[in-house]
């Protein structure tokens, strides 16, 4: 397995322009994320055709290669070994005023093009704050589900408190990690961001009064931590631009923590707490009054968010709902998108029974899809084919509408932690009507998503030539696509 990862990493490096073109490498659950010096040096056609590569995503900040869960961590480790150690920064070359002006104009134009969609860029940056936290969120979420299951069954009573402590410790201090990552993402000192955000969860804030009421430790949650660290970053930058070296060492960190901390205590924690309460109230109202419609929209639109890499921006909402209500009602609805994707992939597998390569891809990606990791199926199956991506969205919409309709009848389904979806979400389910009802409703939603995704794809996703793979044609009767190089009669041209 390590040999395969090493070989894949070695094959990837020249296709992205070589080691000199790679500024940094990191990974999330399924993607190798690269910061490249010159994207024109990437051989994207060869990259997409490389065995093991499930897709490529290019956004404003990074070049992302979809490798799939489990694989991406090993390949990233081998890829980083192929990169040279960073050399000490060289002093800037002496240039003329005209050269500096020309370079500044180029940078300004490049930044203008990159920031053409401010909303999308902001969502990506927020997502990048939380992406490094996903492994801990998944691990703690699964431990929380196991602890809850053991408590309900009455098994291992001596071990259950230990598991609960392990699962809860990270969530209790998540504000510190959010602050650390926010400062790093927005150009501040990470430890100062963590220090400013730590006040949100410090027990001593209960002695502070803001807007006529005592603060509560954790008030505002990750939203307050995000705002506090962002403010701290701007205060730090302001200070560093004005203080000389000696004073900078002493005054900048002091003023950063002081100014940002006071504003956090007396303004941001209260404001973020109000926003968090509003999010919980809005989610409850939407599911109680428009559950089927809300589920249809959320389940149907989640795959495009995954395709764009913006789905991680929803993590603050999930975390806020867990803090407010004990579970997030959004995650089970969004998980229906994965069900539609699995159903669509199964239909492609049945219809294209002679396409050995595609069927092999589907077989390798389906286990991850059943566990809610949909990117291998998106970039390896549905998106390249075209129409199956839309029919997969239809399956997700149907599953979301099913779960949302039961929420309108008092059978709300939520997840007690952020973690895997698909069938792996069952241990994390909770609801007002009890875990058994929550599991039944969620399971019914998955089956609905599978069925609708399968039928929509089987009947509409591969008809004609618009939704078939490149290099394939339909048979003379317009049935199953046939590879172009397979011998056999071709339809006569129209007269």
Concise synopsis of the structure shown:
The chain is an alpha+beta fold. The chain contains 17 helices and 10 strands. 62% of the residues lie in helices and 7% in strands.
Any key phrases for this structure?
transmembrane, disordered C terminus, four-stranded antiparallel beta sheet, 495 residues, transmembrane helix, 17 helices, Gyrase A, domain 2, globular, PTS_EIIC, transferase, 3 domains, alpha+beta, single chain
Largest sheet: 4 strands, antiparallel
| Broad structural category | alpha+beta
Mean pLDDT: 81
Helix tally?
Answer: 17
Q: How many structural domains in the coordinates?
A: 3
- Report strand %: 5-15%
Number of strands: 10
Please mark out the parts with pLDDT under 50 across 5 or more consecutive residues, or reply none: 94-101, 464-495
- Roughly how much helix do the residues carry, as a percent range? 55-70%
Q: C-alpha Rg, in Å?
A: 25 Å
Terminal Cα separation, in Å? 56 Å
Q: Give the strand order of the largest sheet, numbering strands 1, 2, ... along the chain.
A: 1-2-4-3
- Which descriptor suits the 3D outline? globular
Spell the H/E element sequence. HEEHEEHHHHHHHEEHHHHHHHEEHEE
SSE layout and pairing:
Layout: H1 2-15, E1 22-27, E2 31-36, H2 44-49, E3 55-58, E4 63-66, H3 71-81, H4 97-114, H5 118-130, H6 134-153, H7 160-172, H8 174-185, H9 190-198, E5 209-210, E6 213-214, H10 221-240, H11 245-308, H12 315-325, H13 330-351, H14 356-370, H15 375-385, H16 387-408, E7 414-415, E8 429-430, H17 435-461, E9 472-474, E10 481-483
Helix pairs in contact: 1-3, 5-8, 6-7, 8-9, 8-10, 9-10, 9-11, 10-11, 11-12, 11-13, 11-16, 13-14, 13-15, 13-16, 13-17, 14-15, 15-16, 16-17
Pfam families: PTS_EIIB, PTS_EIIC
Keywords: Cell membrane, Kinase, Membrane, Phosphotransferase system, Sugar transport, Transferase, Transmembrane, Transmembrane helix, Transport
Protein name: PTS alpha-glucoside transporter subunit IIA
């Amino acid at each position: 397995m390590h040999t395969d990862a090493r070989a894949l990493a070695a094959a990837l490096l020249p296709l992205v322009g070589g080691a000199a073109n790679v500024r940094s490498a990191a990974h999330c659950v399924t993607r190798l994320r690269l910061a490249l010096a010159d994207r024109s040096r990437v051989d994207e056609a060869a990259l997409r055709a490389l065995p093991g590569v499930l897709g490529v995503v290019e956004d404003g900040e990074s070049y992302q290669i979809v490798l799939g869960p489990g694989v991406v961590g090993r390949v990233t480790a081998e890829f980083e070994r192929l990169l040279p150690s960073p050399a000490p920064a060289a002093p800037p070359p002496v240039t003329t005023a005209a050269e500096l002006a020309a370079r500044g104009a180029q940078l300004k134009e490049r930044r203008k093009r990159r920031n053409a969609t401010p909303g999308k860029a902001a969502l990506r940056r927020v997502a990048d704050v939380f992406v490094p936290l996903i492994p801990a969120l998944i691990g703690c979420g699964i431990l929380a589900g196991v602890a809850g299951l053991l408590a309900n069954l009455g098994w291992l009573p001596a071990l259950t408190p230990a598991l609960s402590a392990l699962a809860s410790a990270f969530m209790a201090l998540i504000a510190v990690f959010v602050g650390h990552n926010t400062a790093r993402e927005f150009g501040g000192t990470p430890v100062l961001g963590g220090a400013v955000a730590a006040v949100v969860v410090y027990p001593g804030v209960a002695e502070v009064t803001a807007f006529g009421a005592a603060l509560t430790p954790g008030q505002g949650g990750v939203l307050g931590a995000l705002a506090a660290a962002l403010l701290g970053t701007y205060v730090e930058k302001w200070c560093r631009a004005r203080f000389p070296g000696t004073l900078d060492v002493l005054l900048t960190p002091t003023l950063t923590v002081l100014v940002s901390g006071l504003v956090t205590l007396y303004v941001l924690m209260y404001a973020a707490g109000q926003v968090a309460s509003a999010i919980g109230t809005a989610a409850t109202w939407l599911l109680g009054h428009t559950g089927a419609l809300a589920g249809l929209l959320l389940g149907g639109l989640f795959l495009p968010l995954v395709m764009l890499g913006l789905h991680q921006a929803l993590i603050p909402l999930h975390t806020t709902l867990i803090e407010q209500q004990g579970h997030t009602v959004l995650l089970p609805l969004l998980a229906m998108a994965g069900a539609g994707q699995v159903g669509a992939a199964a239909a492609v597998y049945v219809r294209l029974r002679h396409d050995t390569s595609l069927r092999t891809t589907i077989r390798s990606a389906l286990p991850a899809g059943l566990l809610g990791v949909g990117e291998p199926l998106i970039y390896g199956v549905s998106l390249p084919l075209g129409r199956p991506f839309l029919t997969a969205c239809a399956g997700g919409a149907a599953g979301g509408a099913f779960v949302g309709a039961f929420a309108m009848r008092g059978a709300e389904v939520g997840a007690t932690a952020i973690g895997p979806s698909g069938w792996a979400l069952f241990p994390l389910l909770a609801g007002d009507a009890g875990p058994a009802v929550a599991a039944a409703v969620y399971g019914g939603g998955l089956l609905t998503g599978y069925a609708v995704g399968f039928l929509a794809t089987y009947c509409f996703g591969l008809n004609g030539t618009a939704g078939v793979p490149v290099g394939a044609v339909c048979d003379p009767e317009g049935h199953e696509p046939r590879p172009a190089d397979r011998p056999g009669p071709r339809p006569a041209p129209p007269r």
